[in-house]
Amino acid sequence: MLQSWVIVLASFVYLGILFAIAWHGDRRADAGRSLIANPVVYALSLGVYCTTWTFYGSVGRAAANGVGFLPIYLGPTLLFALAGFLLVKIIRIAKANRITSIADFVASRYGKSQMLGGLVTVIAVVGVIPYIALQLKAVSNSFTILLHYPEIIMPAKTGAVPLFQDSALYVALILGAFTILFGTRHLDATERHEGMVAAIAFESVVKLAAFLAVGIFVVWGIHGGVADVFAKAAASDSARRLASADFSGNWGSWGSLVFLAFFAALLLPRQFQIAVVENVNEDHLRRAIWMFPLYLFLINIFVLPVALAGLMHFPTGVDADTFVLTLPMAHQQEALALLVFIGGLSAATGMVIVETIALSTMVCNDLVMPVLLRWKALGLAERADLSGLLLEIRRWAIALVLVLGYLYFRVAGEAYALVAIGLISFAAVAQFAPAVIGGLFWTGGTRIGALAGLSAGFAVWLYTLLLPSFAKSGWLPEGFMTHGIFGIDLLRPQQLFGLTGLDEITHCLLWSLLANIGAYIGVSLLRAPDAREARQASFFVGGDAAGLPGWRGQAGVQQLLPLTARFLGQEKAQEAFARHARQRGLAGIDALPGDADLVHFAETLLAGAIGSASARVMVASVVEEEPLGLNEVMNILDEASQVRAYSRELEAKSRELEQATAELRAANARLTELDRMKDDFISTVTHELRTPLTSIRAFSEMLLDDPKADLAERKRFLGIIVGETERLTRLINQILDLAKLESGRAEWTVAAVDVVEVIREAVDSLTALYAEKKVVLELDLPVEDLFVLADRDRLMQVLINLLSNAVKFAPTVGGCVKVGAGGTAAVVRVSIDDNGPGIVAADREMIFEKFRQVTGDAGVLTAKPQGTGLGLPISRQIVEYFGGRLWVESEPGQGARFVFTLPRREGDNAQK
Amino acid sequence: MKPRILIVDDEPNIVISLEYLMKKEGFEVAVATDGEAALAQAAAFAPDLILLDVMMPKKSGFEVCEALRADPARTGLKIVMLTAKGREGEVAKGLALGADAYITKPFATRDLVLRVKELLA
Amino acid sequence: MMRSRLSVQRLAALFLLGCVLFNYPLLAIFGRGGQLFGMPALYVWLMGSWLVLIALMAWVLERRKD
Q: What is the ipTM of this complex?
């Protein structure tokens, strides 16, 4: 049995699960392991679009109108096909400006206007209230129906139920309490609620599963498949009309519904909240573009069969809006009925939570705070910590929205089916479309244009759609509908100016958007955008993400931090400023300069908490006023001066561009040159490697081909092979060494090194070579130590290189090499002299290039010199690394002198 | 009469190997280690074929080749260029200057010998 | 976010296709009655073309890189 306590308990358990998911999601977000960093979760959370309207109402509409329920889902499908143009742009702008709601978005676009933000908020609240009423109606009706199980009794007219016995009131109270617990536990600077999004994604799964379960039960449990449902329906009196007949609706209203739904999926406060504000990663959109329409498809797949089955089972007496629930009940499926109830509850809570949170943010940021902050008597502007107050306002705003929703339900709820109520809300938010879409693609829109357009559209909507909904419920005199206001027939609200033949939605849409767009464009064109509007326009239209800070004034951390702390709390503000300082590479908060950048940062931070328009006003209160006194001066300045300013800016930009081009060209030339050098180097290395390889291969093949060669010859050849192999090894080692030095990847152990001692050691290691070549080695070293800071092994490498070079070039007879060392106060100087052929002036620098070897004076050397041609470049790299120099002094025929200097170690200078 | 071969290379070990190979085939051999010496030897020794290295001090193999081809007294002289620079461009340049063959180092000794014999046949 | 401007343009083309598929006059042709697979032709047409459109959108976005 489904007793009331079972239903209530199940509902609370379900809400408890939701709360647990949200709590877990928030904790994961705080720990940096976001639960919702997943495109599928994002796509599912967009399913908040499907409310009880979809869950119960689609079947109702289908029962009345055949496929007429579909435009509401085809519209969003088309919207998401355009997401690459629209949503991506909006998400980027919203992220860059920390935009927290649709009201904030519109206000920010038209120069951060508080008035505009307030107007959008009013329209959104008034417009969405019928929609919230719809949720209350659906949940309370389904509860009442389920309560009477196994009987199927339609709920009584609400007007007849005393207030405190009305289950809708309790539904409203519980949902309100739940949303307040859920959405306003803490204030977030980015106004994002990760836990909530996770819970919403879960709800989307629940309602889809519940609906599919009913669909499957109806189609295959009661009947024999989809075709069977249609066949039986065609034979039944009550459902024949739908199963076989043509579409009876009007294509004009079909089109206007697609159009309405297209914009509703973007502009409804909850859709904007989920799709834009709660988007954690732009990339998630890519999957959502097809997954969200697929979700809509799946949740609608059984709508028509269920409607037909309902009509067949209940020819009269049962509201088609309840078929989803009453069909399982009529077939004694208690568990399924309970699941359906939970699915409907899920659809309602999802909608109510997100919608009221979004609306409460808007009411708080764009309506209440601007007023409170200006109300000097309250002294709010001086209060130290406002973060508690902000939360308080939001809680009251949530309560208020739900109370209004309930009142609307009591007043007008009975006159309409679920879908019709929802459409009233759709038409209201469609009024945002000109200001939002125009603002994204047209720079000419101005604040007063947007105000005029929104006001006009909203007024027409009130008159042609909302007031009639009261009138139909008997809360306004009947004459209002039939004779128009003041008895003027032309002003009949649903046949405005005598226009007939349209359904009420299309009629309202036509007139309201005509007034809206006309006023928006017409009034915008009355004057050119002022500086602030133009700046925001170029930011929104051009997607100029850098965005000028827009502040000419200055304010330091000492003013901005306390200001921010008042809204965000001391700790969060401190943290945010510290993060900002780190991003700018500064030591800490105190190091932050009071520049335009900082002011801009504080403004966007505040915008997250109190909306962009209020943030601007608050920051303006502490910034030393802009020297331009923006508003005043801008009003005086005429259009011409703006044009001049633009053209100056243009000139400056084109100069910058020219400069950048020149720099690019130079960089390109440098790169080409480097590329050529690298090519040459590789070609030379190849040549140097091939030369020893040639000898090795030739001699190896000769030995192989000629096994009878005599022993002495064999030994000679093998000796050559070994020698060339060693040369090859040396060459490779040096190339690698040089590459390491040049790329800066060499390892150095730098310490104080006595140069004299290193010279002695180098000379010792080469004594044998000198003796073999019969070259005399003379040392002229000072008695005292000469300390430098260097890597001992590397220094040794330089000396051995220079000494073996010297012995190579010394004459075979009477060869003599002198090594000298000394120093000045600043440097230590080492010289190595030989009495070889010397080097002509032209070659003196060339020998330090890679693979350059010169043979000295013509004909003096018959063979080319031994060695790799890399010793000198390596030596020079090493010496220069330690801040010294290496060069050669020589005259042809006079021998050569290689000299290098190294800076003395600090502190040794005094001795000299 | 034995064919005469002039070996021009600045790498002593390569000269030794080429000299050994050519002598083993029964050719008469002379050696030069740079470009100028090569031109002098070409005049003095009057070779039938020159094995000519490209990268050499004083005069490159290309220059030597060009000078020899410009000399009407040297028609019929075969020139085989040897180089460690194996780029396409270099091969084309050598052949354009009138070399009869172009062999990249390291070479296979058998191929070299075959090629020389072919050219002298 | 989009892999390329091309994907965005393909999606925009699908948007236009959707506008045609889901509107008068195409719908009026199927709306004159008649059955397909035992169901009203208009219903079959709408659900079918909707699913195809979603599949095309998924194809544009989820295909391996060009």
A: 0.93
